[in-house]
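@channel anyone free to eyeball this complex?
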Amino acid sequence: MELYVFDGTLEGLLTAVFDCYQRKSGAVKIVSQENFHPDVFQESFTVVSADEKANRVWAGLRKKLDKDWMLRFYKSFLSENQETFHDLLEFSRYILDNPAGAGENFGNKHVLAISQMAQKVHREKHRMEAFIRFQQTADGIFYAHIEPDFNVLPLISDHFKNRYADQKWIIYDLKRKYGLYFDLEKVEEVVFDFTTEMSPALNALPETLLDPKEELYSLLWKDYFRSTNIPARKNMKLHIRHIPKRYWKYLSEKQA
Amino acid sequence: MFERIREKLEILADAAKYDVSCSSSGSNRKNTNKGLGDSEGSGICHSYTEDGRCVSLLKILLTNHCIYDCAFCVSRKSNDIKRAAFTVEEVVELTMNFYRRNYIEGLFLSSGIFKNADYTMERLVRIVKKLRIEERFNGYIHLKTIPGASEELLKEAGLYADRMSINLEMPTESGLKLLAPEKSHEDVKKPLDFIQKNIVQLKDEKSLIKSAPKFVPAGQSTQMVIGATPETDKEIMHTASNFYKDFSLKRVYYSGYIPISTDTRLPIIGSQPPLIRENRLYQTDWLMRFYGFDVQEILNDAHPNLDADIDPKLSWALRNLDQFPVDVNTADYKMILRVPGIGVGSAKKIVQARKFGRLHQNQLKKIGIAFKKARHFIRYADSPLQLRDFDASHLKGVILSESTSKYLKTPQNQLSLF
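replying in thread with the prediction:
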């Protein structure tokens, strides 16, 4: 068993696939740099990300997989999960070694693992599309921050760009410390140094930074959320299954 | 100033909440005019209330003043409640500002009937027109069709709404006549039919002329109240099935009656809403729409009501044991879909995966079928040799004892004390 160490990027992972073939490796275990703990008894091979190698692997996969599968591949990569990195490596080798159509073999554990992880990431993407709550700031920008389980910002960018085409907005991922900013033309990645008044410890922006109308609408939203509930049907178990508690922090309607 | 609008929203959201339709999917309104909103593809539930229902649309009445006195309705004329009405501007402002903050997918607008049908419908149309044209709003709009409104108004409404709906209210004509003598199913069928014909006609035009306008792109739906009148499940689902067929409805909603009236024709206040029954009806609805079942197979004269303790698919399987076991490695997709414990997603995966070799137990489990339940009905590569000596009631007992159903195993129709 060879241990491959890669830099955690998609290029790195694809380069690793290329290296497997070039080095004629047998069984391989892959781990990202940040999770690599050197061990005197185990030799390791450090993958050096190379665009050219990565592109060749990507092109090879595209010949064998349809568009949906390529998207699944990318989504499961965004899970940032160590086991999934390994599944992706093995999946790629399996696909490249077999005729087109092998992606349908859900009896293969890597095929199944990738498709299930892609589903999980997709669910998180969908949750963010649902649970993001913008606040309108005094300078007219609609701002929200989030802490998604997976790195889903790249997946939700288009959704918000198409939907909120006539307003400026920022979505900031506090866990991964970067955000998206839409300036009415294009979406850009941004990184902030938070000032004290805009502390990420708060689950929403303080009133001083907000548009004067913001208070009214967040109040009306909370009122609406309460009025549309039917107490005779109360079912907290179902409620929590749909909105797990970890998401409550940033949902304005769940704040007292 | 805050207080008046807050009070209105409270009254008019409260009055609208008994309409259970929440879907925001199936439209194709892209944001092509650099406006606000995009309703392409699947719907989004932005929140869930504590009763576990999805909040997708801002669901409100324009007003809860009503000239009718339907016994089951909270806004009935004779009910002594606070009344309110939004202005056109207020509804538009609320919708735009909620949407901008990503609270909602769009607007669900209904209304009590004030003065007459046309007067009411005309107000509703004015709101959606303003949203679409002046505000360039491309979010989802679900608009109630007011029975009796003129065809010109319905046609105009259809140009701005994504979905339109009219509620059947009661599953049978006789049930409706009992509680709302002024209404009839005919009043519902006429506009459903009119809008359906226009949808078809515009679809034809659209295949010729790309620029033909959209007309109710997400189709029509309806709702029936369950448990207010003594219909059987068979009557309910046969009505639903007919409406799906006759008017190409996208959805039929079943709403368990929540007692809100002391009228002696209705269940008394405090009695438990029929939530399990409602769930079983939805399961049947799904079997009809996605699993290839005909309503007649599930509900017929010999079997006029759904079981409370097991789901309708399992119930059907137990009544048709001669069709099992199904070999997942050879059977038709259609038949795999009929196995209790196998859903659409798993059935598709099974027929794809088996091309690469016969499927074993561990693979089926990983694919995600409910193996404990399904194992009684299937054969697979390494299935144990089994003598088919079980009978339906024994099998039901085994499955129930192993299940972790969210429902109690004996139906309970009692209010809990705590």
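from a first look: The mean pLDDT of chain A is 93.
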